Amino acid sequence: MKKITSMALALLTAGALLSGCGTPASNTPPADTTSPAPSSTPAPSTAPEASTPPTGGERVDGGTLIMCEPSDISSLNIIYETGDEGMTMLKPVYDPLYIVAKDEVRYYLAESRTVSDDGLAITVKLRENLKWHDGEPITTDDILWNFEMRMNPDNKSSGGTKVNGEPVTVTAQDDYTFTVQLPSVSAAYDATLGGLKFLPKHVYESTPVLSGADINSTSGVGSGPFKVKQWNKGESLVLERFDDYYRGPASLESVVFKIIPNASAEEIAFQNGELSVMRLTTQDKLEKYSNDPNYQVYTLTEGRINYMGFNSNSPLTSDPKVRQAICLALNVDEIIAGAYGSSDLAPAAKTVFCPSNFYYTDVPGYSQDLEQAKQLIAEAGVEGETFRLVYNSSRENMENCALMIQQQLKAVGLNVEIQGYETQGFFEVFFYTDAGDWELGLNGYSTNGDNQGDEYMFSSEGFLSKNICTTDEIAQLWNQGDATNDPAQRTEIYKQIQEQIRDVYTMFPLTSPNFVIAVDKRLQGVDAIDMVPIFEDYLNLYMTN
User: Fold this and answer.
1) 46, 73, 33, 101: which is closest to 424 by C-alpha?
2) Global pTM?
3) pLDDT(46) > 50
4) What is the pLDDT of residue 28?
5) Could you tell me if 322 and 469 lie in one domain?
6) Which domain does 459 fall in, by range?
7) Per-residue confidence (pLDDT) for residue 441, from 0 to 100
8) How far is CA 380 from CA 360, 373, 376, in A?
9) Residue 533: is the preceding peptide bond cis (ω within 30°)?
């Protein structure tokens, strides 16, 4: 099929946002509040230079990178594994077309791409030496089949196939060039298209419907620098170097992900040399490993907002006066000090975007005012009421944040009961049910690149809108932001979105956390691309002796 239409736009960061996980903000806010849009002019793909080994050791070929995740993936199918674990564990296996960053475009499967002057057509040129892990060539035939597959309404993923409710049209120009025609302007679509991951047609074409983990879950034939060697469900994923990788073989011989749900067990494994990398989530650990000569500590940009959301279906928090009172009762600096121990790990967040967003404006946030909070609580008649706070117990620091919030709200006359859920249980309660049997919830979402990527978290038209406190006006602003390519207009629109979300008390931003990791000092190239989920480009990683 040389010309196809496909179905629904699902922004690439959806999985990361859902999972409250990590994905890609700058630690230092820019002096100017307006950030230019990335250029659409194709540029050569170059990998950043690897960092100099702090130990003075020499670079060696080979070695194994060992990392851990708290829970396993459910499938090797990248179309469905878009949560934290999937984004991290399968990143070395599947490459995107390209990555639109704040100041550059980094090319992977694509050699170049050109955006038409009116923004309605994007032409992508694939590299001509691409191979799937089984040796078959990657061509536009694979790309068009992936769009066709996503068009099937029985499939669960339809990412990149609709703009403003209308299907895009994909046409092959030759074996290595295709054009995506948009039905209307979507300023965010370029980044969406670039970040798509693809499955090999020849492996999956006999399966008309891909329903997730039960379909070809053990295939894992991808396009990245590492291929699947062995998946021990619930225990580990072992990847080995793909020698025919189109950009040349990686320096590392293998990458292993171990499933370790317990943080204490993870640290023991790290200290015993069974892991190469460990995230640091407390000030004590940061100081401990910073002073240990066996490790190197890196601070990467996570591009994330951790926040407390309100339930619009609860009689208590459906009242904007109550939400306002809670926002005025909280002191984010004290919450960070109590939960993290230091703002080095988690700087305070004032708004719903990060400085690494393309159109970030430094909008003022909430300031604690206990007397006004108490007055609003009295006016709303909720003094002494019990509020239920839910959180994801699989995420570091969430429980400590919950305890700090519980303590601060008690000071203004509100009782808080806290309850943790493992990841999937939390998603079900926080996003997918509208019973109204909880009031407050702690979550996190990735926010970087084009601001439009966060729309589904806040729009009344979004698929996560069962409990969100929002307005039709905010939804209209999101639509306006995507319908223009003018940087000045988009900056003003996203500024208004930040202000309106703040003024209707949709959520209380807590932190824009850094991604701080301790690393075996022999591993280098960790900070070559300062973004997470780690690591974007595994060719930058290498071992020293």
Assistant:
1) 73
2) 0.82
3) no
4) 30
5) yes
6) 304-512
7) 96
8) 34, 11, 6
9) yes
